[in-house]
Amino acid sequence: MPSSPLASYAQLGIRELHDQDPELYELLDLEHRRQSGTLAMIAAAGVAPASVTACEGTVLGNVTAEGYPGARFHAGCEVVDEVERLAVRRAKAVFGARYANVQPHSGSTANQAVLFSLLKPGDVLLGMELSAGGHLTHGSRASVSGRYFTSVGYGTDASGLIDFHEVERLAEEHRPKLIVCGASAYPRTLDFARFRAVADKVGAVLLADISHISGLVAAGLHPSPIDLAHVTTTSTYKQLYGPRGGLILMGRDADLPVPGSRRTFAETLQSAVFPFVQGTPQIQAIAAKGRALALAAEPGFKELATRILDGAATLAAALTAAGHRVLTGGTDNHMVLIDVSHKGLTGVIAEQALESCGIIVNKNKIPDDPHGPHITSGLRLGTNILAARGMEGDAIRRCAALVDRVLTSVRALGADTWHLDDATRAAARAEVAEVCARHPLPHGGLGPAV
Ligand code: DSN
Q: Does the global pTM surpass 0.85?
C-alpha cells in the first residue's frame, strides 16, 4: 500500500492510543480478542470488515455538514458531498431503489423519521407486537412510537406465523394511517405483497423495516419490499455487515404524493431526516455504509448470504433433532428461535450458561411468554457471524451440538440462577476456542467467499 496521510494517520492513532492511553487501549484490545475467541450467534449482529471499520476512523468525522450534497449549511463539503453521493448511488443499486437516504444514525432513527413525518400525534399505527417478535419502534409502549401515536399491535397464530386475519381485522377496525411490517424475532418469510394489500384496502401507508433481513433482500434470497412498501428502512450493521447506522429506501412510490399532502414521499422523507429529526450527519459512518454496500454488490455476497440461510436451516434441523422446541418448526431466514422452557430453563439462564462457555446468544420473549423481557422463555440464535466465519454444514452442526450440550447440562435453580458443572464448561470452552481458531473472523473481507 502506498504511504499516504490517510494511512499514516490511522497508524498514528493506534500508536498514540497505545502509548498515551494504555487503559483504554487495553479495553479495545480485549474486546477485539473477545470477538475473535467467542462464537457469536447474535441474530441482530454482523461483523464489519476492516475496510468498513477503517472508514469510521478517518478525518471525515471532523466535517460538520448539515443538509444534503450540494445544499449544505456549512462550507468545506466538496469532498464529503461526493462521499454521500457515492453511498446513495450504491444503496440505490444494491436494493434497486429510486430513493435512498444514507444519513439516519440508526434503524430506529430511520423509523422515527418515517413515523414523525407521515403521522401526527395520536394517529393510529398498526405494527407487530414486541412480544410477538416486533420491534420497539413499531409502536411499543416502551418507545416514543407507542406513546405519541395510538398504537395497535398484531401477533402470530398458533403455529407462530403472522396472523393475517388479525392484521386485516385490526386494520379494518382501527383504520391505521400507517402499517409497519418487519420484525426482530420472526424466523419466517415476510409477505410484503399481502401487507400492501391490507394497507391499500384501508388507505394506510406501508413501512417495511428489513433491518434483520436486509442482506438476504440485497442478495435476492428474500422477497424485496422496495416496490411493495411505500417506504423501507433498515439498519446497516446486521446483515449488511456495515457500521452502526440506518438507511431509508423507496421504490415505485417515491415520487407519488403522500396521502393528504402535495409533497412526494421522497420530498417528505428527505426533510424528515434533516432537519426534522437529525442535525449534522455522521459522514464517517456514511462512508462506511458506502463501503459495506460496495461489498454487498460483489458476487461473493450472495455466497455469504446463502451460507447465512443454509446455516440457519442446518442449525434449526440439528437443534430439533436434539429435542429442542424450535418455534414455527424451522426458519426461512438467518434466525432460529427456541423455547427453552421446554427444557426447564428460562431464556436468561440459557443465555448466561452459554456465555460462560463462550457462546454468545440472546434471551428473547416468545409468543404468550409468561416471563418479562429480563427473564423470558426463549432464545434467539442467528447465523450472520457464523457465515462470515465461513462456517457451513458440519461446522454449523458442531455449533448446534455445543449449544445442545450446554442447555442439557445446565440446571435451573431459580428463574435466573443456575448451575453448570466445571467439567462441562471447561470442555465446551475448549471446543469453542478450537472452532473459533479453525474458522477465524475475517479481517480483510467477509469470509472466504468475498
Ligand atoms: N433490534 C434489536 C434486536 O433485534 O436485537 C437490536 O438490533
A: yes
